What does this fold into?
Amino acid sequence: MSQQTSPVVPLLTPKEVSINQIQTELNRIWAEQTAKANGSGPAAVRATTFSLLVYEPAQTQRLLAQLGYYSGPVDGIFGPRMKVALHAAQKDFGLPQTNHATAELLQRLRQKAQQQPVQTSSDPQTLPVFSQDSDGSGIADLIANQNPCRVVSLFPVNDAMDEEGADLRAEVAAYCPVQKQRNSLICCEYITLSGTRRSLENITTLIQSLLMNDLPRFLWWKSDPDQSEEFFQKLARSCNGVIFDSSSFSQTQEGLIKMSQMVEQGLNVADLNWKRLAAWQELTAEAFDPPSRRSALLEVDRVTIDYEAGNPAQALLFLGWLASRLQWHPTAVVQEEGPYNLLTVTFQNPQQRQIQAELAALPVADVGEIAGDLIDLKLASTNLEADCCTVLCSQTTGCMRMEAGGGAQSCRVQQVTPLTDQKSEVLLSQHLQRWSRDVLFEEGLAVSCAILQLIALA
It folds into this structure.
């Protein structure tokens, strides 16, 4: 069952302003609303909850908005409106409909943007018909719906795409989710800054000043970790937490190691991909809740994890979590190239017993929206008398490979129900409500990185 959101009222559709007029324009909006409140009608009020700073290297949303396909907040969030806009653009260019922007689509959008002026009208009647798609209009992004705030989005463009000497572009907007239980509208402010990476770095102080004082601040870095860069460090240090999604890392292993290093440096780091493992972790723990099986957990010395080929982050994070809970220390790794790209990790527990874990990347014909989702896993023992065999598998794929390995009948088998809240924007919204440090994540990530360091030395 999909999660529904409230309708959204555009108090101010994206309006281009000069860099030094951002605060002035926003203040003008609320001054007008204050005057309205003193009159006869209900007024909209500025949200004072937190600031979300989004670093979005992909140009998809900005280009779709510029060309009129997308009419919602330019916030870097792939919500329902973005999905509709993306499909509309793909249909317009005669491309297959997918939930991600291909290189060909981006090229087409850039070419069209160079030939077409920016959409600046706030009149819905003048916008292209596809921006008013019934599946997308009237649906607020979950962030604005559940967490009204100020969103500052940074859209770096390639130097080659930017005209020499071109100024930074700034836009401001305000959108208000309709809440029936409230008499007034509590609205999100959106500030969009686009330009070359160098030009954005030159206004770091301005960017920091746009984050609301004395309120929580979050940095959603939608790219590989970049802690060696001064730009990232300044932004991260000005926020209460840094949010990544390791499912989108181009260099997964390097990205996980850099996240772990940030944790060691004292940063409050979150990974949305870690949150996708919650159901797998809960069912694994639940399998050993009965008193008769609790002691059998110590007999587990064989672990098999299958995941969708393409991104091993979830598999490594789950294995790191399991090992950290059972105090397993990784001692050796063996990589085997082939159809499954097998990775075998040897651990040692406090009782000096060896445990072997095997990670297998399974090719899949229908890749989901999230790269590297877990498919199934098995916990077993070389002690045939031990009652510890546990098999978990995705409800969408079944347990065929685990059953083919034999012994499934003597195992506890459970299916992980596909979750409807795996999308980044939903996980982000949930995290923003409970954003304290996650000790389990940090400890599990440390073990995952210890495995990766052994791989680097192998």
User: Anything to note?
Assistant: The radius of gyration is 24 Å. The CA atoms of residues 177 and 365 lie 39 Å apart. Confidence is low (pLDDT under 50) at residues 1-5, 119-140, 161-165.
